[in-house]
UniProtKB/TrEMBL annotation:
Protein name: Cell division protein FtsA
SMART domains: FtsA (SM00842)
Naturally occurring in which organism (per UniProt): Rubellimicrobium aerolatum
Complex and partners: Self-interacts. Interacts with FtsZ.
UniProt subcellular location: Cell membrane
Domain SHS2 as annotated: residue spans: 24-224
Length: 443
C-alpha cells in the first residue's frame, strides 16, 4: 500500500498547487465522448493548504472554458488504443484552453471502467492527546486491515464514512473533540491497476499532470443526487456509452460502487446489426426515434433508414418505430436486470431511503424511467446535474453528470486515507500480520 499511498499524496499535492494558481482542468474520459471543462477558482476563497477535505475549506469556482469531442480508443470506460485516446484528449483539452484563453497543465480525470469493487473496513486507535487531531485519525485509518483485493488491484478511493468516539457514533469530523478511543468505518474502492497506469501514461504523453482520479459513478452521484437523497440513502445509476456505473450513498458518503460493462453503445450496436446500417446511422436513429415503450400509433410511424450504397431498394428502406423498440428494449432490460442483481448483492434493500436516480447519456431514452421502475421495483427519478457557475447550457444535460460532479470533487474534496500522516511502522506491522496469517494457513 505504500507506493499507492505516496502516489495519491503526490496527486493531492499537485491539486493544491493547481488550486493555488487558480486554474485546473476537468476531463471526463468516456466511451462515447470526451468532455473537458476549465475551472477558475476565486483566490479569496481558495482552500487552505493545511489539509484536503470538507474541513479544510471550500472554494468558489466558475467554468471559463469547455469542449466536447467524440471519444476514440476508449472501450468499456477504459483506454483501448493509446494513440486514439491521446488524440481525443489533446483535441478536447486544446479546444477548452482556446475557449478559456488560458493554458492548463493539471487535470483531474474520471473513468467509468476498471472493474470497481467495494470493501468495508473498520479501524480504531487510542487518542494520545487531550483531544483528537490528525495524527489520531491517521493511526485509526492505519489500523484498518486491508483485504485481499487480488493481483493487480489498486485503491482508487478510501474514504472514512463514519467516526466513533467512545460511545458517540455518526460523527462527521472528530477533530478537536475530547475522547479516549477513536474508531472509523472506511469505504475502500479498488480498481484494476493496469487501467489506472495506462490512463496516467496516456495523460503524460499529452503533456498533462494528473492531479486526481475519481470514479465516474461516484462523481455522477455527487452532481445528480439531492442532499436528502445523499443523507437518507439512494443509488445513482450512471448509464454511459460503454458501461453503467452504480454508486450508493448514505449519510452524504459513498458506501458502495459497482459497474456493469453494458451501456448505450451496445444498444446502438444492436440497432446497427438488426437494421443492417452503419453505427453512425444507428446512433442517429436511436437518438431521434428511439424508445422502450411501444404504443398503438408506433406501428404507423415509419422511420426512413437511408443510405448511400447506390441500391435504390436498400437506400429507401423504412422501419416502424415498433420494430425499433423491439430491438432496443431487450438490451435495456438486460442492463437493468444486471443492475438489479448488483443492488441485491450490495444489500440496497436494507437502506432507510431507497431512492433510485437515473443519469448519464443513455438514460435519455424515452420511457426508460418507467421500465426501470418496473424492473428495479422502486420509484425512479431522472437526474440532471447541479448547475455550476459559468456552465454552458449545452453541458447541463444528464450526459454531463460525471463532468459536473468532477468539478464538485475538485472544489469540495472529501477526506481520504492519504490525506493524513500514517505511523512509520504501519507497513512493517501489516507485513508481520500477513506473515502470521501465512504460517497459520500453511503449518
Amino acid at each position: 500500500m505504500r507506493p499507492l499511498y505516496e502516489t495519491q499524496r503526490l496527486m493531492r499535492g499537485l491539486r493544491r498547487a493547481a488550486l493555488q494558481r487558480g486554474v485546473i482542468a476537468i476531463l471526463d474520459l468516456g466511451t462515447s465522448k470526451t468532455a473537458c471543462l476549465v475551472l477558475r477558482f476565486d483566490d479569496a476563497a481558495a482552500p487552505r493548504t493545511d489539509g484536503v477535505g470538507p474541513m479544510a475549506g471550500q472554494a468558489r469556482f466558475r467554468v471559463i472554458g469547455h469542449a466536447v469531442t467524440r471519444s476514440r480508443g476508449v472501450r468499456f470506460g477504459e483506454v483501448d488504443s493509446m494513440g486514439e485516446t491521446e488524440r481525443a484528449i489533446r483535441t478536447a483539452v486544446q479546444a477548452a484552453q482556446k475557449d478559456a484563453q488560458v493554458r492548463v497543465d493539471h487535470v483531474i480525470v474520471c473513468l467509468s471502467g476498471a472493474r470497481p469493487q467495494s470493501f468495508g473496513l473498520h479501524g480504531e486507535a487510542e487518542v494520545e492527546g487531550p483531544m483528537v487531531d490528525g495524527w489520531d485519525i491517521g493511526r485509526a485509518l492505519a489500523s484498518c486491515e486491508v483485504p485481499d483485493m487480488g493481483p493487480g488491484r489498486e485503491v482508487l478511493h478510501a474514504q472514512p464514512v463514519n467516526w466513533l468516539l467512545d460511545h458517540r457514533a455518526g460523527l462527521s469530523d472528530p477533530r478537536g473533540q475530547v475522547g479516549e478511543r477513536l474508531a472509523t468505518d472506511l469505504h475502500l474502492l479498488s480498481v484494476d491497476g493496469a487501467a489506472i497506469e495506462t490512463l496516467l501514461l496516456c495523460l503524460k504523453r499529452c503533456d498533462l499532470e494528473c492531479a486526481g482520479i475519481a470514479s465516474s459513478a461516484y462523481v455522477a452521484g455527487l452532481s445528480s443526487l439531492v442532499e436528502d437523497e445523499q443523507e437518507l440513502g439512494a443509488v445513482c445509476i450512471d448509464m454511459g456509452g460503454g458501461s453503467t456505473g452504480l454508486s450508493i450513498f448514505m449519510k452524504k458518503h459513498m458506501i458502495h460502487a459497482d459497474s456493469v460493462r453494458l451501456g448505450g453503445e451496445h444498444v446502438t450496436s444492436d440497432i446497427s446489426m438488426g437494421l443492417q446500417v452503419p453505427m453512425a446511422v444507428a446512433e442517429r436513429i436511436k437518438t431521434l426515434h428511439g424508445g422502450v415503450v411501444a404504443t398503438g400509433k408506433d406501428d404507423r410511424e415509419l422511420i426512413p433508414i437511408g443510405g448511400d450504397t447506390g441500391d435504390w431498394e436498400h437506400d429507401r428502406r423504412v422501419v416502424s418505430r415498433t420494430e425499433l423498440i423491439g430491438i432496443m428494449r431487450p438490451r435495456m432490460e438486460e442492463i437493468l436486470e444486471e443492475v438489479r442483481a448488483r443492488l441485491d448483492l450490495a444489500g440496497f434493500d436494507h437502506l432507510p431511503g431507497q431512492s433510485i436516480v437515473l443519469t448519464g447519456g443513455a438514460s435519455l431514452i424515452p420511457g426508460l424511467d418507467g421500465l426501470a421502475a418496473r424492473i428495479l421495483g422502486r420509484r425512479v427519478r431522472m437526474g440532471r446535474p447541479l448547475r455550476v457557475q459559468g456552465l454552458p447550457v449545452a453541458a447541463t444535460g444528464a450526459a454531463f453528470s460525471a463532468a459536473v460532479g468532477l468539478t464538485l470533487f475538485a472544489a469540495h474534496p472529501q477526506d481520504e486515507w492519504w490525506d493524513f500522516e500514517m505511523p512509520p511502522d504501519r507497513q512493517s506491522a501489516r507485513s508481520f500480520r500477513r506473515a502470521v496469517k501465512w504460517f497459520k494457513d500453511n503449518w
